[in-house]
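Re: the 217-residue chain
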Amino acid sequence: MRTFFLNYRSLPLLLCLVCIILTSTLRVGSHFLAYLISGAIWSLLIAASASLLNPSRLWFRVFFILALLILANVGAQYVTRGEIALSISLHLTITVIHLLTLGLLLRHAFGHRNAIALDRISGAVAGYLLLALIWGNIYNMILVQQPYAIVETADTEPVKNEHIIYYSLVTLTTQGYGDIVPKSSPARIAAALEGTVGTLYLAALIAFLIGMIKPEE
């Protein structure tokens, strides 16, 4: 089992991200505390999985401190009943965890020539899914200040919490079904940047994989 985790370090993180996305619709949008706790638990899972990528004491301490900040923020928001500044700081801390994890993933997937192909590919896929979670938190920070920044076209009401990850994935893949649309300038800029980054990520990934193929002598 230990040899498996040493050879396939990005697989646990990929499975964790898939579970997060599949359960994102289970968020209880009307219950603020449940929403915050779910975000904290998901970030703790990602931090635990990311520690496998670089199991050094420094990275473990960094993720541990960030996880404690998230838990402290959740408790403070429960006491203050949803302070805007605390909500923004919570999503910002989760975004930092995701960015650090993305950096470790890209380094593990593209920076080690001796990495196993399956582990390299799973790391690249996990990095793509992490982009959706990163932008999901960016949208959350925008919605905290502007509730009608992103609306659902069916009833022109603010996007539900359980639909944010779905909206982020659709935007990342540039599908754009039109059922959820950005209305404010910050939300539109964020959506445009997410679509651009998602396209460039796939282009860079394809170029890297093609470069790995050795030309025939």
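The helical segments are 2-7, 10-22, 32-50, 57-80, 84-110, 117-145, 164-172, 185-212.
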